[in-house]
Write a structure and sequence with these properties.
It is built from four helices and 74 strands. It is mainly β.
């Protein structure tokens, strides 16, 4: 039950108030304010077995509200003092607005507990998210959660539900059944004691006439919550063994390795707050169903009077003392830390420190929260501390405060991290967003010091939902909030209206650390459904340590990496990320100066970024990666040494332009990828674009990039010959054509005749050569002057056709403008298939139909190398659609093949001459050629053959 009140029993005079003000700015260390331990006894419990209960509830709910009791008049002196403090104090932490970002460079140092250095900088993705307990008997639900090795227990007012970690409900248990009572319990709390592997559920119970008030306690007999429990009722109206008339409200539950702690606010039967109480139970007695000998501490005071809503810590790790913490529910500029020593034998309570923090405040009797779709307000509570966690020497808590981000006052979240050794605030942070209300927060900590918050959020344009946010131990601010479940509708249920006409909500949310994982946190909270009701949602989030490495030669080469655009990490260290597929990484090999390379590192002359995680397709400096939550996740930027290479050109002329595509190349604008850069041949490892970066003077290529299991697989290098190139010789422009690529020194070519083709370098010092033909240019001095060959013909359609040798090949050129301009026939390729020489040309047409251009044909005969001898080949081209196209041969094979042991090709010119009769198709032809050998029984001389084409 959430009672929004605090009545200070003792009046304040001016001198006392002045004394309090002077103390409020001081840190109290080991104050000597001691409180008397009060001893009492609670009878052993009863056994409750829930194993036979069904997963779903069969209980019929009748809506009712846990009433808010009449609050006493708020102390004017305290209110005036707190207002003065709020006006004179400023927030000392950075605003943690929603969608905030920060940058952090991690030093090369170990994180607390010897864990890897950590940073969480990615918008979270929930590992698990499912609906919890839906609308039950009472308003508000007070949802709370605890997590064990195999189960999740969620409690609300009236019942608990037990889920497995996949979200499947195993049991639903009424609190009256669990506690073996008939009256209605309220304010449930639940923990999983990881020290003893037991579950503990507590709640409060009272009679309507205020004559009975109990702490109801249930503990599981084993780590399995679906089995048997022990149920205890401990009289909350006893202070030790002394009977009082004060009933207990708003309990909190803590534990350490030896004891269970319950705290509560004690009220009179006329609803006046008297004091706070602490009750200590021996865990061994609880877990063995023995008579409970407990210790009470009561009537604690701080600088503002009687303490209200004192919260015991839930402990993790080794502990020697139990810590408690309280804030001031209406606001202040300090928090108070308490300590219990000798918890079981001779407990002592000490007010350890009053710690200055930035001021916080709340409205009396409650902060008011807007939601979409109604003019009614949600009762947003006050600034009392919520759950307190103790881990590795630090206390953590969260609570609400009012804050104006610029457009009006809203409710925001304050989170605190307190060092109990120095009695100082390590984190004193504000979280929220302009125009949005953040309320009922709970804080959770993993064993790395990472913080997560679960809370409700709404605005005039947003239904009430449950959200989470997180920050790692090294973060400067929290992440953007992420919805476990956004609100689905307006919540105005009349059963939820308090006496002031405001909507009851909360009174808290739940969060817990998974004991089977040191970095997974589970949440629960309330959200508004689309049927004017409430439900709860359960989710989990894991911080995953991911190591980032710049690997050079198989070991860390130093430098740093940038993760998700806002965090920089040194090579070899880890960041803690949420499980997500939406992550980015960027190499900063040497502090960002040369993002793609290491120079003279680990005795490697030059190492350049090649891929991420040995995945060839991840070749860009920027890379997307997923965090899967598996142990030992590592993201590796692989840097590999470069090798020399040359891209050259052979032609009848110089100044050949070639293209080279280096997918790993960085352009001056920072872009990277499939981008052909052009330069004059030769292109070497020290000339652009083979440098690897636009501002580098040295570079090279990677070896064995491109062919995987016999398949060309990107990324790989590519070479290209730009079309449309021409050169001027003697005042005449000559168009250039690529006829093929050749290699030397260890290179694979994807397609040797393509204008653009992939290349794979398999050894350093390799060369790729573009063999380029210039139109009407020849490297053969006799190519145009050998009168024994017919070199040039004009067909009936006015085309000129010319054949000649150049660069060791036979070429066909054609002109349609009477020889003013020429272009290469045969699609720019030589006519021979290897090497050729001594071409001859003739043409014919159908004399019966001289105007039919389909019968205009050209035949070319030439000598071609065949091993150590030669063959005489021929090709026929006919006019087809306005272009001369090579046709299938009229008969297969060459016109003539030199016999074995015949003339040597390099020393012999057969000088073939072909003549073609111009009559109907097929047409007769005559071929003459010269032999100088006696091979095959043939004598040297001039030979001829004839046939039809």
């Amino acid at each position: 039950m959430f009672t929004f009140c605090k009545l200070v029993k003792k009046s304040f005079n001016a001198a006392l108030l002045a004394f309090i003000i002077s103390l409020a700015f001081s840190i109290f260390t080991q104050a000597q304010s001691k409180y008397k331990p009060l001893k009492g006894i609670t009878h052993a419990g009863t056994v409750v077995n829930i194993s036979s209960l069904p997963p779903a509830s069969n209980f019929t709910y009748a809506k009712k509200q846990i009433p808010i009791l009449h609050e006493p008049q708020y102390s004017k002196s305290v209110k005036q003092y707190q207002k003065q403090q709020a006006n004179s104090s400023t927030l000392k932490a950075s605003r943690e607005e929603d969608k905030s970002t920060s940058q952090l460079f991690l030093p090369k140092a170990k994180a607390p507990l010897g864990k890897s250095a950590a940073r969480s900088i990615q918008t979270a993705t929930l590992n698990t998210n499912f609906q919890g307990i839906a609308s039950t008997t009472e308003e508000p639900p007070d949802p709370i959660i605890a997590v064990g090795s195999n189960y999740i227990v969620e409690a609300v007012n009236s019942e608990i539900a037990i889920f497995n970690k996949s979200g499947v409900r195993q049991k639903t248990v009424q609190l009256t059944t669990l506690f073996n009572i008939s009256t209605t319990p309220f304010d449930p709390r639940v923990i999983y004691d990881q020290y003893a592997q037991r579950w503990v559920v507590t709640a409060l119970e009272k009679t309507s006439d205020f004559t009975q008030s109990n702490y109801e306690i249930a503990v599981s007999q084993t780590s399995d919550p679906t089995g048997s429990w022990y149920a205890f009722s401990s009289n909350a109206m006893l202070d030790g063994s002394t009977q009082t008339s004060y009933w207990a409200d708003y309990d909190n539950l803590g534990y350490d390795n030896s004891a269970i702690y319950i705290t509560s606010n004690q009220f009179t039967s006329t609803d006046l707050f008297e004091y706070a109480k602490i009750r200590i139970f021996n865990k061994s007695q609880l877990y063995n169903n023995q008579t409970l000998t407990y210790t009470d501490f009561v009537d604690m005071t701080d600088n503002y009077g009687n303490v209200f809503a004192l919260v015991p810590a839930q402990n993790f790790g080794t502990t020697t003392s139990e810590y408690l913490l309280n804030t001031e529910e209406w606001g202040a500029s300090s928090i108070t830390v308490w300590r219990i020593d000798n918890q079981l034998n001779s407990p002592s309570l000490t007010q350890q420190a009053i710690i200055n923090v930035a001021s916080y405040s709340s409205n009396y009797p409650a902060n008011l929260v807007k939601e979409e779709g109604t003019s009614l307000y949600i009762n947003g509570g006050d600034s009392r501390a919520q759950q307190v966690i103790f881990n590795n020497g630090f206390l953590y808590t969260s609570f609400n405060t009012l804050y104006n981000w610029g457009s009006g006052t809203v409710e925001a979240i304050r989170s605190e991290k307190v060092d109990v050794n120095s009695n100082s605030s390590v984190i004193d942070a504000l979280y929220g967003a302009d125009g949005y209300y953040y309320f009922y927060p709970q804080i959770g900590i993993d064993n790395y010091g990472d913080i997560a918050l679960v809370f409700n959020r709404s605005s005039s344009n947003e239904y009430p939902g449950v959200y989470m946010a997180y920050r790692s131990a090294n973060d400067a601010s929290a992440s953007s909030s992420e919805a476990l479940q956004a609100g689905a509708g307006t919540f105005t249920n009349s059963n939820a209206l308090d006496k002031n006409g405001n909507i009851r909500w909360g009174d808290y949310s739940g969060i817990g650390l998974d004991p089977s994982s040191d970095n997974q946190l589970w949440f629960c909270g309330e959200w508004a459904t689309n049927s004017n009701d409430w439900s709860t949602q359960i989710g989990s989030f894991k911080f995953v340590p991911v190591e980032f490495v710049n690997s050079v030669g198989g070991s860390s080469g130093g430098g740093s990496l940038k993760i998700n655009s806002n965090a920089t990490v040194n090579s070899g260290l880890s960041l803690r990320l949420g499980m997500s597929s939406n992550n980015t990484e960027l190499t900063l090999a040497q502090g960002g100066t040369n993002q793609d390379r290491f120079v003279n590192t680990n005795n490697i002359p030059l190492a350049k970024h090649n891929n991420w995680n040995s995945v060839s397709s991840s070749y860009l400096l920027n890379n997307n990666f997923s965090v899967n939550g598996t142990p030992g996740e590592t993201e590796t930027a692989n840097f590999i040494s470069l090798n020399s290479a040359t891209i050259n050109a052979v032609s009848d002329a110089g100044n050949i332009q070639l293209q080279f595509n280096d997918p790993w190349y960085i352009n001056s604008n920072g872009s990277q990828g499939n981008n052909y850069a052009q330069a004059t041949a030769p292109i070497t490892q020290t000339s652009a674009p083979m440098t690897g970066a636009y501002n580098q003077s040295s570079g090279g290529v990677f070896l064995n990039q491109g062919v995987v299991n016999g398949q060309w697989t990107f990324p790989y290098y590519s070479v290209g010959f730009p079309s449309g190139q021409s050169i001027s010789v003697g005042g005449t422009s000559h168009q250039l054509y690529l006829y093929n690529w050749s290699t030397s020194g260890g290179v694979n070519i994807e397609n040797s005749t393509a204008a653009q083709t992939g290349v794979e370098f398999t050894s350093g010092g390799a060369t790729v050569t573009a063999n380029v033909k210039g139109v009407h240019l020849s490297s053969d001095p006799s190519a145009f002057s050998n009168n024994s060959q017919r070199k040039l013909v004009r067909t009936k359609d006015g085309w000129l056709h010319q054949v000649y040798t150049s660069l060791g090949h036979v070429w066909l050129e054609e002109s349609t403008d009477n020889g003013t301009t020429w272009f290469l026939g045969n699609n720019g390729q030589p006519l021979d298939s290897g090497s050729g020489k001594c071409p001859s040309i003739d043409w014919h047409y159908n004399t019966a139909d001289p105007t039919n251009t389909n019968y205009y044909a050209v035949v070319v005969a030439f000598e071609q190398q065949s091993g150590s001898t030669y063959t005489i080949e021929y090709d026929v081209f006919t006019n087809s659609g306005g272009a001369y196209v090579k046709q299938s041969k009229a008969f297969p094979g060459p016109l003539y093949t030199e016999p074995s042991g015949g003339d040597q090709y390099a020393a012999t010119n057969a000088n073939p001459n072909i003549a073609w009769a111009g009559n109907n198709d097929p047409s007769p032809f005559v071929l003459s050629f010269e032999r100088k050998s006696t091979a095959g029984g043939m004598q040297p001389g001039i030979y001829w053959i004839y046939g039809y084409m």
